[in-house]
Amino acid sequence: MKKLLIATLFLAMTASTYAATDVKADDDSKSISYTVLNQFAAEFSDATNVVWTLTTQFQKASFVSNGDKISAYYSPLGDYLGATKFVSIDVVPAKAKAEIAKKYEGYTVSYAIQVISRPYVANATDDTGSYWVDITDGKKELYLKVTPFGGIELIKESAVK
Known about the structure:
Keywords: Signal. This is Beta-lactamase-inhibitor-like PepSY-like domain-containing protein. It comes from Hufsiella ginkgonis. Residues 1-19 form the signal peptide. By secondary structure, the chain is α+β, with helices and mostly antiparallel strands. It has one domain: Nuclear Transport Factor 2, Chain: A (Roll), CATH 3.10.450. Helices cover 24% and strands 37% of the residues. It has an 8-stranded antiparallel sheet, with helices on both faces. It is elongated.
């Protein structure tokens, strides 16, 4: 149950990351906690083009680092939740790409991200290095979790709006 809750929260953050990739003229940086701003500055000192988003579920920094589009997430209380980066489907393990193509024929990849860091949490699964792939056939949107070894898990299915 705890894994499902973590996966669902991460999926919500991931989907909002994709939806918020356009640079905002006005971000939420004035509403982000001082603790989070300091943590972020220490952890991601090379970040450029930082745009902050505040929701009831998390505080998110979207930024560029070494040419990569990255998002770092913090809880409303300021705890670091992890970071992801947008990747090409080409970097997803070949085994997983082949299985996706076979099992989800007719679907196209909307985007793929990779979990690049997570804090240590006792009794939690560390999914650092895993990929989250969003695919659609125009009617349904599927969110797949892909392990670094090519295993695939369907996390969520929803109707395209």
